[in-house]
Design brief:
Order of helices and strands: HHH
Radius of gyration: 41 Å
Distance between the termini: 120 Å
Number of helices: 3
Strand content: under 5%
Largest sheet: none
Number of strands: 0
Helix content: over 70%
Shape: rod-shaped
Amino acid sequence: EAFMEDSRAKRAADAKLMAEKEGHKAELEMQLQRTSAEHKSTMKSAMNKAEELRDFHLECDWLLANHGARKDARAGEVDSLRNAKAILSGADFSLVQSGSRAARLRGSVLA
């Protein structure tokens, strides 16, 4: 009879231990899911930042590569606006050539 009592106490202790371990396992699984979701969110955010940085880098490379051409185009536009303003003010440019145009003409004649 003492053996039966010991067995019953052991089964009760084992059942209690099993319930505690299942509860701990459930808590750890919840923590794992939460951590996985946070990791997924962090990785998505990091990928978005990396893509944004790549886009900025490409835009910067393009600006650096085309800086000279854009600078020349702006200078040509400024020159054209000055000529248009002068013409509207009454200046006569019918016999005058601009320096860059004359140089291009001389270059094509020499070539």
